[in-house]
Amino acid sequence: MDSSGNESKRPTLGVGMVGYAFMGAAHSQGWRTAGRVFDLPLDPVMAAVCGRDPDAVRAAADRLGWAAAETDWRALVARDDVDLVDICTPGDSHAEIAIAALEAGKHVLCEKPLANTVQEAEAMAAAARRARARGQVAMVGFNYRRTPAIAQARRMVEAGRIGVLRHVRVAYLQDWIVDPEFPLVWRLRREHAGSGALGDLGAHIVDLAQYLAGERLAGVAGLTETFVRERPLPAGASAGLTASADGGPPSPGRAARGRVTVDDAALFTGRFASGALASFEATRFAAGRKNALRIELNGDRGSLAFDLERLNELSFHDHTEPAASAGFRRILVTEADHPYLEAWWPPGHGLGYEHTFVHQAADLVRAIAAGDQPEPSFDDGLQVQRVLAAVEESAEKNCVYTPVPPASPVAPVPAAQAR
Description:
Layout: E1 12-18, H1 22-37, E2 43-50, H2 54-64, E3 68-70, H3 73-78, E4 84-87, H4 94-103, E5 107-111, H5 118-132, E6 138-141, H6 148-158, E7 165-173, H7 190-193, H8 197-213, E8 217-225, E9 230-232, E10 257-259, E11 265-272, E12 277-283, E13 292-299, E14 302-307, E15 313-318, E16 329-332, H9 355-370, H10 378-396, E17 402-403, H11 415-418
Parallel strand pairs: 1-2, 1-4, 2-3, 4-5, 5-6, 7-12
Antiparallel strand pairs: 7-13, 8-11, 8-17, 9-10, 11-12, 13-14, 14-15, 15-16
Helix pairs in contact: 1-9, 4-5, 5-10, 8-10
């Protein structure tokens, strides 16, 4: 049977997913839909989902469309019907699960950021290179690359439409922790999340900037800040977290609170290898901004801009036109020859956030079937991790320019061996 319940002659790709909260639900949407929209060479089969709470994970499996539920990720990795492990857990478990899955002969999709530290990301990238020689692939889930307008912008940059890149400006703004009484969830604890707005939002915009520019950042200078340094503990939180900001017990009559150990906001500048400049802003303290991501690329022949709140559009200025008639124009990215749109709706019928996960799943399935390395690879994820680490190092030194270590040379895998 295929994913629509019809008889299929296509070989299957069994998918097992670890984690079923917000990102797990988004990935499930991708796996449920990709084979029903795109003509894929393999039929994705949602074999099993994993979570620690038996009742909750069983309910999630039924709700999201998974055939089975597991409470131990090791058991999921060991299943014969799982060919690919999709990791949608907090960053502190990414390395252990991904490396184990790769060593077990599985393909891996891992949510961003790749890991909580450069050292973990290096171990994951090394495991992915070893697995690649055995014919396996590993990919990082930077889903915004799969927005049709972003993919179209990449095409235009590659075609030289903005000329030589001079300056990139990126901002990713949210407001979900502006209230100081918002609880101390896992994303606000370094031991689970690695960093705050920098890793959660900054990873996306670093990847997008490098993806669209077609080159990597060579160095950065940044500042970070934590505006609210203690927050109420969530219901049922560990007693080990019950401390006030000064380390003492909670005040009488006041809810137990814990330390916020990540950044609330990050600002940094960067220089690409070509000499082009970039500026980045990532914050969870922009009141009124729910998920506002904007990127603009300026070159000597033109400029391109994308705003996630208008995700079916690009803004483009062709600087080679006469000044009397030149100006920014709106490109509605819904035509059949725009990226991914051939499988969707008639022109003018826009797509949404959830479609990026459908496209991500489809691209990964095609790469696996072809024996190709999908992008972004674990090496790409490692490079983003190095940028984030350089920003943190710079911030600790009060915005001192900090080089990003270059990527280690990777020997290409012969095609016959890779397949």
